[in-house]
Specification:
The structure holds 2 protein chains of 2 kinds.
Chain A lengths: L3 E4 L2 E4 L5 E7 L5 E8 L3 E10 L2 E4 L7 E2 L9 E3 L8 E8 L8 E2 L3 E5 L1
Parallel strand pairs in A: 2-11
Antiparallel strand pairs in A: 1-3, 3-8, 4-5, 4-9, 5-6, 7-8, 9-10, 9-11
Chain B lengths: L2 E4 L4 E4 L4 E3 L1 E4 L5 E7 L5 E7 L5 E4 L2 E4 L9 E3 L8 E8 L8 E3 L3 E6 L1
Parallel strand pairs in B: 2-12
Antiparallel strand pairs in B: 1-4, 3-9, 5-6, 5-10, 7-8, 8-9, 10-11, 10-12
The chains are: A mainly beta, B mainly beta.
């Protein structure tokens, strides 16, 4: 089954403790991206990647890192999480770019205390 | 930069009512426009898209027409059902200048009552 898989689905942690949210797709997609969803703000893009070793900033990249060492994986790293990063996070992928239909994961709810 | 302005919600309608959710955009190039839908507890799914002016996207009874002159992409459905209750997001992609960002609106929560 074609899918985008995020882990964990839920995480409660404390300020400053490094965490990684994994994202994997099995559709051989070139384009992958991360979003955060906050009430009243909709979805905002954090980072995107056009291909292996190619990443670029979205609209809200501060406090986040990403890497794209393999085509199928695009982890989101919070090196020193803060409470303002408490949010619902989505990973998505598409065949080759932002103007292609995006396939979304089911989301990861992060709470930073 | 690019932006999407979406109708504020929430929107509550009775079953079989006519639906319009407004979406306007600002872009430097010639963007592609999308409507995505998010059902409770799930990720977003593509509902429909349009890639150039005057294109009409349609799916599951929903329609939206790309209007360049009014920079709009309003979502419509003639007769809504309870199963259409969800959050709807308008989005744009404007890759013509090497920028592969995807910009979303704030979302409109739609509730249909029987």
């Amino acid at each position: 089954e074609a899918q985008v898989t995020q882990n964990p689905r839920y995480l409660i942690t404390v300020t400053g403790k490094k965490l990684t949210v994994t994202c994997s797709q099995n559709m051989n997609h070139e384009y992958m991206s991360w979003y955060r969803q906050d009430p009243g703000l909709g979805l905002r893009q954090i980072y995107y990647s056009m291909n292996v070793e190619v990443t670029d900033k979205g609209d809200v990249p501060e406090g986040y890192k990403v890497s794209r060492k393999e085509k199928r994986n695009f982890p989101l790293i919070l090196e020193s999480p803060s409470p303002n990063q408490t949010s619902l996070y989505f990973c998505a992928s598409s065949l080759w770019g932002s103007n292609q239909p995006q396939h979304f994961g089911d989301g990861t709810r992060l709470s930073i205390l | 930069g690019d932006s999407v302005t979406q109708m504020e919600g929430p929107v509550t309608l009775s079953e079989e009512a006519f639906l319009t959710i407004n979406c306007t955009y600002t872009a430097t190039g010639y963007p592609s426009l999308f409507w995505y839908v998010q059902y409770p507890g799930e990720g977003l799914q593509l509902l429909l898209k349009a890639t150039k002016a005057d294109d009409k996207g349609s799916n599951k009874g929903f329609e939206a027409t790309y209007r360049k002159e009014t920079t709009s992409f309003h979502l419509e459905k003639g007769s809504v059902q309870v199963s259409d209750s969800a959050v709807y997001f308008c989005a744009l992609s404007d890759p013509n200048f090497g920028n592969e960002k995807l910009t979303f609106g704030t979302g409109t929560r739609l509730t249909i009552i029987p």
